[in-house]
Specification:
It is a single chain. By secondary structure, this protein is of the alpha/beta class. It is about 30% helix and about 25% strand. A seven-stranded parallel sheet has the order 7-10-6-1-4-5-11, sandwiched between helices. A five-stranded parallel sheet has the order 13-12-14-15-16. A hairpin with a 4-residue loop joins strand 8 and strand 9 (about 140-145). Helix 3 (about 75-85) crosses helix 4 (about 100-110) and helix 5 runs parallel beside helix 9. The protein is globular, with a radius of gyration of 21 Å. The protein starts with a strand and ends with a helix. The chain binds flavin-adenine dinucleotide. Belongs to the ETF alpha-subunit/FixB family.
Amino acid sequence: MSVLIFIDQADGHVKKASYEVLSYGAKVAEQLGTTAEGVVLGAVPADQLAALGKYGVKKIHHVANDTLNHFDAQVFTNVIAQVAQAAGSKVIIFSNNVDGKAIAPRLSARLKAGLVPGAVSLPETANGFTVKKNVFSGKAFENLTINSDIKIISLNPNSYQVVEGSGTAEVSPFNATVDAPKVKIKAVNKASGEIPLSEAEVVVSGGRGLKGPDNWGLIENLAHVLGAATACSRPVADEHWRPHHEHVGQTGLTIAPNLYIAVGISGAIQHLAGVNRSKVIVVINKDPEAPFFKAADYGIVGDAFDVIPKITEAVKKLKGMA
Ligand SMILES: Cc1cc2nc3c(=O)[nH]c(=O)nc-3n(C[C@H](O)[C@H](O)[C@H](O)COP(=O)(O)OP(=O)(O)OC[C@H]3O[C@@H](n4cnc5c(N)ncnc54)[C@H](O)[C@@H]3O)c2cc1C
């Protein structure tokens, strides 16, 4: 029996979220007195895979079939099921990101395994297997006990500290049966120059307090000097000030950057649901009673049109960009 961790990759590079989930999985394995193993699908250089050993994983099952270079939830589920069965994995761990959300429920049905999506801490394993997760958009916690033989957890990003040690992992090629995807990708057109919002470490986000699309230069300039992605509240996207792929919240993207800067956003619960897993939240709002301040690590009460240019200039100076 082992703990199996799904390691996300894109364009041959292991994704940032995987380091967290590897560290978490290694600790779960330690708690259970077993070893942690990873599974990687698609082409990734062997030295990059071996280096994952420093996050506590002993072995990487690598399925390097070309079909797996493009994500397809059904195909990935089939392959991971084969790896899990061959490795005798009793606990399977994903990041609760876009890929994890698509694969984990399918795998749960396939393996008849209990699933807790969105775990926020290590499971209690002294007596059974109980996993804590957020409910009601982070307003409460729920503790769920998984009783099935195989258990699946997906970990909310930014819930566990990345632990980097030393060591290398054994890279073991795995010969899986890979089905042809039912959906054929004809072309991939990536926006160049933009930092993808779901992957960004720093996000500058604007709300209705910005008054209109013509003022978005304020947000873009600050994002540019910080190397950040830009986001917005839902009304901003609804009013077509910004494209819908930038809208974060309950009905938009859920993100978990290291730093989220909210400018002219009131902090409605539906907005917070998409950003409250950010490590540090900075709120800039002219209303000292804005609800967002309650969720903020740092707050500036002030007019965005005065404050943002000053911060942008200060960052420029600090970075020698002025
Ligand atoms: C079912 C449902 C789902 C929803 N899903 C989402 C979602 O996914 N994401 C989302 O964002 N919302 C969502 N909403 C909408 C949400 O309830 C709020 O209405 C929305 O988040 C408010 O957007 P806002 O903060 O930009 O605007 P407002 O609520 O209008 O707030 C603007 C803020 O800007 C401040 N401000 C004004 N001028 C300035 C200035 N010059 N400088 C600094 N601050 C200033 C104001 O004090 C105010 O706090 C949802 C609502 C429902 C009912």
